[in-house]
Amino acid sequence: MPADILTIEAVETGGDWTGVLQAGDIDAVAAAVHAQTGACGEVSLALGDDAFVRSLNARFRGKDKATNVLSFPAGEPGFLGDVALARETLGREAAEQDKQVHAHALHLLVHGILHLCGYDHETDEQAIAMETLERRILAGLGIADPYGDEPHAHG
Fold first, then answer.
1. pTM to 2 decimals?
2. Who's near 13: CB < 8 A, 6+ residues apart?
3. Among 13, 21, 42, 130, which is 20 to 30 Å from 149 by CA?
4. Mean pLDDT of the 39-61 span
5. CA distances, 35 to each of 46, 93, 114, 121 (Å)
6. By C-alpha distance, which of 35, 38, 40, 27 is closest to 109?
7. Fold of the CATH domain 6-140
8. Which residues touch 150 (CB under 8 Å, ≥6 apart)?
9. CB-based contact 44:9 (threshold 8 Å)
10. Beta-carbon contacts of residue 55 (< 8 Å; ≥ 6 apart)
């Protein structure tokens, strides 16, 4: 793998991901994140179901529940870390928020990768910076603003 690009290697570990991500989406996200952040290296993406993500969340974060996305920074040269998406949670959230599942999946993937790049949303300032970057990356992918009028939705 060339060291000057960002690549994402995806593996389906559970859930029905049919039609959620289109051909080329993962490479497009990698290119868009790289273009906006300069991030280089490899990301491992697990496309899982709620049970898979719940087990990761319980084991590594002490939270025995499913969540939409988890990020595990690697801290080693050439490998940024792992991102896991939960199919059922992703679908439920998209329906509740009146969003397309495809767009929500891309947003969560971008969000997870930005965590691997050191971005966070613990403070209002961090949330504003991270969400501004998410909006720019997603706009470049043709995805509408996932936050709408909500100022710093995470903080």
1. 0.92
2. 46, 47, 48, 49, 52, 84
3. 21
4. 96
5. 23, 28, 13, 21
6. 27
7. Collagenase (Catalytic Domain) (3.40.390)
8. none
9. yes
10. none
